[in-house]
């Protein structure tokens, strides 16, 4: 009997790659999305497959699935700072009410559920690199709080369902992930810099560019998530690439990769923008025998080739 998995956020960047992975591994995949930040074209290649089914639905509303369900992966949520600043209430709702609905569904179906948490639960971290036992440094009432606190609540309610109802739960703390199917205008640094290079605009560094991030290629992230789902570990696990870089050096790398003649310009640093971020992945290595394989040079080239393949109309479409 083919096992069935429900993936929320299926039309988004990570959700669509997870749909591909589970289809390739022989599962029956039900994708769910309300397209608030996603795009149907990310799953267009799956729509006619017999093992794929798509349901357009807002997960903050009651979720009804016919028949059995073996696994749920809850990835629905705006993920880019400018997205969640634009739709703060929906962000809070999908992390809280949406997660509650999905946990209820998992309980009703006796399914195992994995929820997508984030390095943002560490806020602007005072511990570096970030280990899973660090409680974080989040400004609850700051503009980013809507995302960070929704995700922290999501972790709490997931552990409560695990402890109180004995539900099989998994929590992945995802660090900055990139690759094809990111939205060119979603405001995250990689699409932002690559879009600027392709349009012949200067690259906008926020602040002095000395803040750091550690970027993980999407195929590595998906492999880590897959392994975590099939592990027997219920506490949060960091999945990310520990190779850390300042945003300033990163802009230089992108200028070289894209061959643009543009320069960098400096803009104001958004409030509560974390100064440093690097996952400690010792736990994932030990538990899952997982570590990232794709280096930044290779991953960035693949991502740039994807953005280059987009139409001029998409390249110049402005959302903000
Ligand atoms: P994305 O915006 O590309 O995808 C999110 C998807 O969720 C979109 O298709 C959107 O339409 C859908 N969605 C949002 N609210 C919904 C709702 N109420 N009902 C149904 N669908 C809804 O973002 P992404 O980068 O693919 O992120 C996916 C998940 O991974 C998110 O939960 C995010 O918090 C988490 N995450 C991502 C990263 C990263 O670097 N990409 C890092 C940490 C955590
Ligand atoms: N950033 C930047 N220029 C941009 C977009 C982002 O300098 O045009 C910076 C941003 O301030 C942050 C880093 O790049 O320090 C990563 O931002 P992103 O939105 O990709 O992710 P997050 O802050 O959630 O890690």
Automatic annotation (TrEMBL):
<keyword id="KW-0472">Membrane</keyword>
<dbReference type="GO" id="GO:0042732">
    <property type="term" value="P:D-xylose metabolic process"/>
</dbReference>
<dbReference type="GO" id="GO:0070403">
    <property type="term" value="F:NAD+ binding"/>
</dbReference>
<protein>
    <recommendedName>
        <fullName>UDP-glucuronate decarboxylase</fullName>
        <ecNumber>4.1.1.35</ecNumber>
    </recommendedName>
</protein>
<keyword id="KW-0812">Transmembrane</keyword>
<feature type="domain" description="NAD(P)-binding">
    <location>
        <begin position="6"/>
        <end position="300"/>
    </location>
</feature>
<dbReference type="Pfam" id="PF16363">
    <property type="entry name" value="GDP_Man_Dehyd"/>
</dbReference>
<keyword id="KW-0735">Signal-anchor</keyword>
<comment type="similarity">
    <text>Belongs to the NAD(P)-dependent epimerase/dehydratase family. UDP-glucuronic acid decarboxylase subfamily.</text>
</comment>
<dbReference type="GO" id="GO:0048040">
    <property type="term" value="F:UDP-glucuronate decarboxylase activity"/>
</dbReference>
<keyword id="KW-0210">Decarboxylase</keyword>
<keyword id="KW-0456">Lyase</keyword>
<keyword id="KW-1133">Transmembrane helix</keyword>
<dbReference type="InterPro" id="IPR044516">
    <property type="entry name" value="UXS-like"/>
</dbReference>
<dbReference type="InterPro" id="IPR036291">
    <property type="entry name" value="NAD(P)-bd_dom_sf"/>
</dbReference>
<keyword id="KW-0333">Golgi apparatus</keyword>
<dbReference type="GO" id="GO:0005737">
    <property type="term" value="C:cytoplasm"/>
</dbReference>
<comment type="pathway">
    <text>Nucleotide-sugar biosynthesis; UDP-alpha-D-xylose biosynthesis; UDP-alpha-D-xylose from UDP-alpha-D-glucuronate: step 1/1.</text>
</comment>
<dbReference type="InterPro" id="IPR016040">
    <property type="entry name" value="NAD(P)-bd_dom"/>
</dbReference>
<keyword id="KW-0325">Glycoprotein</keyword>
<keyword id="KW-0520">NAD</keyword>
């Amino acid at each position: 009997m083919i096992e069935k998995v429900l993936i929320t956020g299926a039309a988004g960047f990570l959700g669509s790659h997870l749909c591909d992975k589970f289809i390739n591994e022989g599962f029956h995949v039900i994708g769910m999305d309300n397209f608030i930040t996603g795009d149907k074209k990310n799953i267009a290649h799956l729509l006619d497959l017999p093992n794929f089914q798509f349901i357009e639905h807002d997960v903050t509303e009651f979720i009804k699935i016919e028949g059995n369900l073996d696994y749920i992966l809850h990835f629905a949520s705006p993920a880019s700072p400018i997205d969640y600043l634009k739709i703060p209430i929906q962000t809070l709702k999908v992390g809280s009410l949406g997660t509650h609905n999905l946990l209820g569904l998992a309980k009703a179906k006796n399914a195992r559920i994995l929820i997508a948490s984030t390095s943002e639960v560490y806020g602007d971290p005072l511990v570096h690199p970030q280990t899973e036992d660090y409680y974080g440094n989040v400004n609850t009432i700051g503009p980013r709080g809507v995302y960070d606190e929704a995700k922290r609540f999501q972790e709490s309610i997931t552990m409560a369902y695990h402890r109180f109802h004995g539900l099989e739960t998994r929590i992945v703390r995802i660090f900055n992930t990139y690759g094809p199917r990111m939205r060119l205008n979603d405001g995250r640094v990689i699409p932002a810099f690559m879009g600027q290079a392709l349009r012949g605009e200067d690259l906008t560094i926020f602040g002095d560019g000395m803040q750091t991030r550690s970027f993980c290629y999407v195929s590595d992230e998906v492999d880590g998530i897959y392994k975590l789902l099939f592990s027997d570990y219920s506490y949060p696990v960091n999945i990310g690439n520990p190779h850390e870089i300042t945003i300033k050096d990163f802009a230089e790398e992108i200028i070289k990769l894209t061959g643009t003649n543009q320069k960098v310009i400096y803009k104001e640093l958004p409030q509560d923008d974390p100064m440093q971020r690097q996952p400690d992945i010792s736990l994932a290595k030990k538990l899952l025998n997982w570590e990232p394989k794709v280096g930044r040079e290779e991953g960035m080239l693949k991502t740039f080739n994807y953005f280059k393949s987009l139409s001029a109309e998409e390249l110049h479409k402005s959302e903000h």
